[in-house]
Each structure stands twice: as structure tokens, then as C-alpha cells.
């Protein structure tokens, strides 16, 4: 048995290493006299990459079965080999059709539609094995809707069309949609080098040293490394502007730290995803969307930074509170008797293996380099630098193993992202998001709250699987005039849409940042997305708060009338609301909270953020009373025992 496991391990390392080298060569920038190798033509590179992902997923499943003691029957091996041959044929056909599209117009036939359906079937099966049922089932539902949309009732009914063309182009042969569409392209162009960088960081010993140092410095603090993870992810995210790239760039280091502290894999991945997503709203850089907003609204970039500062800090404060309450609930609070692993001089030296690559990435991103180019430059710097670790000096082949492990991680993530591609293809080809937003825009003419709710839902639906920038632009074009018709200033309307565009990357069912984090934390992708939504609840509440109280955006362009007293009261309201909402969502404060207590706290937090002065004053008084009473009830049992 062990001999079979070892052979499978070598095979999956070879496949993972090949995938890693091909992926890096595709996005490697040119250096001085060294020309670029890629980018490769997508007509042959995407199907080859997809085939390698399927092969790795199959071998990974075999190895996992044998490692966990489960049987690997002959019929399972034969079924997987047939599936692999089927995918190979689909990939060859993709290349043939792609080359035909370059020269002429292509008309699909029934055989092409069957090829697309076969590719969907194999990918769904592998996704079910690797990631569980939820993502696979959602993908199947999207496939069913794409196939039968003209039979659905009401607004869900599509215009029909040629089923053969729809299946073939939208699911498999289209460069923008489907299993190997634009979302899959994001993995190839941005995510892959960051995942491999993280794998090399772990393989060169930097990750272990970072964990030991973090525990030594933070073991006396509640939540420990989770706090540093929030800061690191936020600071990196504000530079990169990409939630997914941020997750895979810093999560490979921070997620193991959080898990080792005692948090679950789902919570660790969710915290990384939410902190990474928030980087796009955190000054001073905020990614490309903020630059577009400044130009679109007609204000200076400094105005955008000042406007978003309080909401962004409030969001990150809510993440700190989420860690605080979760730590209390799990009983992992500070413990003076807890002895961290001893830190050696080599650990401090190894710390440079993390600091140097991240410094290179941040510097290059600030200078305008692409995320992929910055991360590959960091990898090239890290490979020779890792020799300062004596373990790598004695066993340099560990770096090859780390590259291969990075390729395996990319392959597993790509299978899940391929299913996301089915969902995105179904939405874009049927036109449901746009029809939904336009129809409900008319229904919201008489209520600002209805308009805001519709806009929020539209942002999340349209942003599923889509980068924040195009999602923000698309929804502001549709809903922006409606919001401004209710008297909202342009910067307020744009900021509202922007926040929900950011939230879409952690919102089920297509929570692409949460799925990326789950691939590192080994948690369930859908469970990680659900926990992300709970942790990031303030990301959904804060935009409503600054719409009804523009003073939160600080700048006069938002429409608020500034006065010191009103501003300080707004900050006090916000702080109390954050505490009440954080404890309510965790269902824990000094001790467990019942359902009614949690709902009461959440309701008080919402009223505190409302525009009504007297209700917010009453909510503040009642909220403070609830907190005081809760602490008194916590003390009494202890006194009784004494």
C-alpha cells in the first residue's frame, strides 16, 4: 500500500511541477536582455492547462483514498481514466475550434454541444470529490437553467435561442465564458504566481519561522496571530487591489498561523478572505477602482481617500471584534502558562525570506508593475535567498517540491473555479442580472431604502465571479441615476455601489475570494463563504449607514454638514454598533448569547446606524444597559461559587 502511495506522490509532484513551470512561463515578464516567453496563445495553453488540472485532480483523489485507508476499486480507476481520455478529446477539440475561429466564422453542431456537456460532467464530478456537494450542485443548477431557461416562468424566462450554440459557446468554446473563460483566465494570469510564491515561502522554512515568531510575540494576546493576519492582509490588499491575489499572496502564511492558534479552517479562511477583500476599501491605494471613481465623480483622489477612511477603519475594527469574540467562544484567550516554541537566531534570519519578497511585491506594485510580474520577480529573488536557510542548503530539492505543491494547489482551485465559470456563463448569456437590475430599478422609484436594497443585491449578483472594477462600473451605470434621483450626492452613490462590489467576492454562491482561501485552509469552500459573510456583516451595513448619515464620509462632497459634536456622536454610535453587532453575530460576549439576545443586539446596532436621532439615542441607552446587565449576570455566578 505504501509503495502505491509513494508512486502516486511522485506522479502528482511531476504533474504539479509541470503545471507550475508552464504557468509561470506564461506570465513571466521580460528582464533586461531576457525576453518574455509568454503569454502563450490561449487556443492551446488553456486546454493544456485544464487537462493537467484534471489529471492532478484525479491522481490527488486516488492518493487521498489510499492515504485515508479508503478502498480504490478497479472500476473507479477505469472510470477516471475514461474521464481523462474524454477531457483530452475535449481539449483537442477546443484547440481545433479555436484555430478555426481565428481564420473564419465557426458554426457549432450537436457534437460540439456534447463535447461541452461532457467537459461539464467530468469537471462537476471532480469538483464534488475535491470540494464537496454545494459548489457542484450550484454548478448543475446553473447548467440546467442555461439549458432550459426558455421554459422558466416570469422574469426568469429567457429568450431561448439555439440550444446547441448556447451550450457549446457558453460552456466550453468561448474565451470569455464557461469552464475555461475569463474567471479561469484570472487563475492563470494573477492567482497562480501568488499561490506558487506562497508554496515556496512555506517550503523554504519561512512559514514555520513566521509562525514561531508570531506565537512568541502574540501568545499573550487574545486571538494572537489572527490580529496580525488582519493587518497584513489589509495592508497588502490596499496595494494589490485584488482580493483573490491578496488571499493567495498572504493567506499561505497567515491561514496556518490562525489555524494553529485554535481557530477552525473555515474561520481561518473566512478571516483571510474578508481582510483581503477589505484591502480594496482601505486607503491609501485601494486598487484601480478608487482611481476610476475619482475620475468618474470628478473629485480629487485625496477626497476619495478621506471619504472612505472612517468606513474602512470601522470595517477592520469589526474584523478585530470578530476574532475577539470567536476567541472567547472557543476558549483560546490569552494564557500566560502557554509556552510558545523557542525562537532561534535562524528564525529571525528566515524572517527575511518573508519580508524581502513582500517588500519587492509592494514596491513593484506601487511602481505600476502587474501583480503577476511583481510576484514572479519575488519568486526569482526568493529562490537564491532561501539558501540562507541551512535546511535548504542541505536539501535544495525541497524548493522543487514546493513548486510542485504550488502547482497541485492551483489545479485543485482551478477545478472549483471552472464550476464558477458555469455559473457566470449562465448569468451572462441569459441576461438575468441586467434584466433584474433594470426591472427593479423602476419598482424602486418611490423608496430610497428599496432602491438601496435593489442596488445592493444587483451589485452582489453582478459581481459574482467578476473583478470589483467591472462590477462597480456596470451597476453604477444602471442604478446610479436612480440613487441620485433620491437626492444622494454622486460620491455617496458611487461609494455605496463600490462597497457592495467589494462584498461580492466573499458572498455565496460565487465567493471567489473565500473559495481561494478555502483551498489553503483545507476548509469547505461554501462553509468558508458563509462564515465570511457573517464576519464581514458590517461591510453590508456600513454603506446604508453612510447613505443616511453622509457625515460618516467626512468630506462636504458627500452632503453632510460638519460639526464637531455631531461628528463625535457619529463615531460613538459607530463604535457601540460595532460591538453590539460583533457580539450578536458571534452569539458570544462574556458568555454565550441566546437567539433573542443576539437579535436584540443586532437590532439595536441597526437602529444606532439609522438616521433617526431619538431612536438612535434610545438604542444607545438600551444598548449600554444590555451590555452592563450582561456583565452583571456574568459576575453573579462567580460570586455564588465563592
Automatic annotation (TrEMBL):
Keywords: Cell inner membrane, Cell membrane, Membrane, Transmembrane, Transmembrane helix, Transport. It is found in: Cell inner membrane. Its main location: membrane. Residues 189-554 form the TRAP C4-dicarboxylate transport system permease DctM subunit domain. It comes from the Bacteria. InterPro entries: DctM, TRAP_DctM-Dct_fused. The keyword Signal does not apply. The keyword NADP does not apply. The chain crosses the membrane at residues 12-32, 44-62, 74-95, 101-123, 130-148, 179-205, 226-248, 301-327, 348-366, 372-388, 400-426, 446-464, 497-520, 527-548, 560-581, 602-629. It is a multi-pass membrane protein. Part of the tripartite ATP-independent periplasmic (TRAP) transport system. PANTHER family: BLL3936 PROTEIN (PTHR43849). This is TRAP transporter permease. It comes from Marinobacterium aestuariivivens.
Amino acid at each position: 500500500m505504501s509503495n502505491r502511495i509513494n508512486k502516486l506522490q511522485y506522479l502528482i509532484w511531476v504533474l504539479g511541477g509541470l503545471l507550475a513551470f508552464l504557468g509561470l512561463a506564461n506570465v513571466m515578464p521580460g528582464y533586461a536582455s531576457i525576453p518574455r516567453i509568454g503569454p502563450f496563445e490561449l487556443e492551446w495553453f488553456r486546454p493544456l492547462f485544464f487537462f493537467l488540472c484534471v489529471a492532478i485532480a484525479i491522481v490527488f483523489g486516488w492518493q487521498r483514498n489510499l492515504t485515508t485507508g479508503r478502498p480504490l476499486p478497479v472500476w473507479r480507476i477505469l472510470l477516471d481514466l475514461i474521464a481523462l481520455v474524454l477531457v483530452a478529446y475535449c481539449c483537442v477539440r477546443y484547440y481545433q475550434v479555436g484555430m478555426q475561429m481565428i481564420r473564419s466564422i465557426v458554426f457549432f453542431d450537436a457534437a460540439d454541444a456534447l463535447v461541452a456537456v461532457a467537459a461539464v460532467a467530468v469537471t462537476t464530478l471532480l469538483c464534488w470529490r475535491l470540494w464537496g456537494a454545494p459548489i457542484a450542485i450550484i454548478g448543475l443548477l446553473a447548467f440546467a437553467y442555461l439549458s432550459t431557461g426558455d421554459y422558466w416562468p416570469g422574469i426568469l424566462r429567457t429568450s431561448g435561442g439555439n440550444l446547441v450554440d448556447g451550450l457549446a459557446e457558453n460552456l466550453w468554446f468561448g474565451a470569455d465564458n464557461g469552464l475555461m473563460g475569463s474567471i479561469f483566465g484570472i487563475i492563470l494570469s494573477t492567482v497562480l504566481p501568488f499561490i506558487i510564491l506562497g508554496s515556496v515561502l512555506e517550503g523554504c522554512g519561512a512559514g514555520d519561522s513566521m509562525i514561531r515568531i508570531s506565537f512568541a510575540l502574540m501568545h499573550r494576546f487574545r486571538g494572537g496571530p489572527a490580529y496580525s493576519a488582519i493587518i497584513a492582509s489589509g495592508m497588502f490588499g490596499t496595494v494589490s487591489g485584488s482580493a483573490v491575489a491578496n488571499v493567495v499572496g498572504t493567506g499561505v502564511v497567515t491561514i496556518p498561523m490562525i489555524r494553529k492558534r485554535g481557530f477552525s479552517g473555515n474561520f481561518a479562511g473566512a478571516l483571510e478572505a474578508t481582510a483581503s477583500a477589505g484591502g480594496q476599501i482601505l486607503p491609501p491605494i485601494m486598487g484601480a477602482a478608487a482611481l476610476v471613481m475619482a475620475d468618474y465623480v470628478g473629485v480629487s483622489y485625496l477626497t476619495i481617500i478621506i471619504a472612505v477612511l472612517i468606513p474602512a477603519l470601522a470595517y477592520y475594527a469589526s474584523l478585530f471584534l470578530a476574532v475577539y469574540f470567536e476567541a472567547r467562544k472557543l476558549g483560546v484567550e490569552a494564557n500566560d502558562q502557554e509556552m510558545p516554541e523557542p525562537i532561534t537566531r535562524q528564525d529571525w534570519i528566515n524572517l527575511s525570506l518573508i519580508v524581502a519578497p513582500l517588500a519587492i511585491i509592494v514596491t513593484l506594485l506601487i511602481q505600476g508593475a502587474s501583480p503577476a510580474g511583481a510576484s514572479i520577480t519575488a519568486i526569482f529573488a526568493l529562490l537564491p535567498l532561501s539558501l540562507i536557510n541551512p535546511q535548504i542548503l542541505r536539501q535544495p530539492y525541497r524548493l522543487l517540491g514546493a513548486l510542485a505543491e504550488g502547482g497541485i494547489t492551483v489545479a485543485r482551485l482551478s477545478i472549483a473555479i471552472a464550476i464558477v465559470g458555469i455559473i457566470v456563463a449562465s448569468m451572462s448569456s441569459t441576461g438575468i442580472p441586467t434584466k433584474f437590475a433594470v426591472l427593479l430599478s423602476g419598482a424602486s422609484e418611490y423608496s430610497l431604502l428599496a432602491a438601496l436594497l435593489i442596488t445592493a443585491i444587483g451589485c452582489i449578483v453582478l459581481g459574482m465571479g467578476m473583478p470589483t472594477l467591472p462590477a462597480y462600473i456596470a451597476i453604477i451605470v444602471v442604478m446610479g441615476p436612480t440613487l441620485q434621483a433620491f437626492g444622494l450626492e454622486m460620491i455617496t452613490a458611487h461609494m455605496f455601489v463600490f462597497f457592495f462590489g467589494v462584498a461580492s467576492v466573499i458572498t455565496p454562491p460565487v465567493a471567489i475570494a473565500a473559495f481561494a482561501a478555502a483551498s489553503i485552509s483545507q476548509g469547505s469552500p461554501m462553509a468558508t463563504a458563509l462564515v465570511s459573510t457573517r464576519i464581514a456583516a458590517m461591510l453590508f451595513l456600513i454603506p446604508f449607514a453612510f447613505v443616511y448619515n453622509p457625515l460618516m464620509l467626512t468630506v462636504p462632497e458627500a452632503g453632510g454638514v460638519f460639526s464637531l459634536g455631531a461628528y463625535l456622536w457619529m463615531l460613538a454610535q459607530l463604535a457601540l454598533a460595532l460591538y453590539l453587532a460583533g457580539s450578536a453575530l458571534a452569539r458570544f460576549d462574556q458568555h454565550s448569547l441566546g437567539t433573542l439576545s443576539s437579535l436584540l443586539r443586532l437590532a439595536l446596532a441597526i437602529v444606532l446606524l439609522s438616521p433617526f436621532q431619538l431612536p438612535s439615542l434610545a438604542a444607545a441607552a438600551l444598548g449600554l444597559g444590555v451590555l452592563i446587565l450582561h456583565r452583571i449576570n456574568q459576575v453573579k455566578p462567580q460570586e455564588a461559587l465563592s
